[in-house]
Design goal:
By secondary structure, this protein is an alpha+beta fold. It is built from five helices and four strands.
Amino acid sequence: MNREPWKFIIIRDEKTKEELSKLHKGASHLSNAPINIAVVGEPDVSPDTWMVDVVNATMYFVLSAYAVGLGVGWVAAYENETAKKILGIPKEKVLVTLLSLGYPDPEYKPKPKTVKSPEEVILYEKWS
């Protein structure tokens, strides 16, 4: 059964984007993007699978945006009470993430990132 336990709040208001951009050290890009999106989970709609469903829907959104040439910034805003208040999100709903959406700056160069080797994250047959 596909209950779609999520809501996407589209945020275009400059003041709101500015307020949200100050809530997290990695959220400054929210104020510069034309659109922000708050991804909200609804545990009451699908108690057993809501988190997996919401994150999957968010990743499909991100991939779809990328496919049409848009850039997306992801802010780990999980259950930020101030953001929930700014956006009027009910107490029983869960703010999962905030996204910035727009055309990427062609001059932007991401900082080099280190990732774990496959040997560090892949296990065979059982936990070892």
